[in-house]
Specification:
The chain is mainly α and 71 residues long. The chain has a domain of 47 residues. The chain has three helices and no strands. Helix 1 crosses helix 3. The longest helix is centred in the last third of the chain and has 26 residues. The chain is flat and about 50 Å long.
Length: 71
């Protein structure tokens, strides 16, 4: 049985959510940069931090937990 009770709405992506928040707070006005470009930049920053954290763990040879204690 197919559910055709209404249109299917997809969840917004992280970038779309970030762009919406940035736009709602007029953050893009400070740099004259469109909100979607700032959202992509922030997503890239999170990815870069994740990679840096992974490399740090490799360097120390162990997984590090939040708060600075090692596992």
């Amino acid at each position: 049985m197919v559910d055709d009770s209404g249109p299917v709405t997809e969840q917004p992506t992280l970038e779309q959510d970030l762009a919406s928040v940035l736009n709602r707070h007029c953050i893009e006005n400070e740099s004259n940069t469109p909100d979607f470009i700032l959202a992509d930049y922030l997503r890239a920053c999170l990815s870069a931090f994740k990679e840096a954290s992974r490399r740090r763990e490799q360097w120390y040879g162990k997984e590090l937990s939040i708060g600075g204690s090692s596992r």
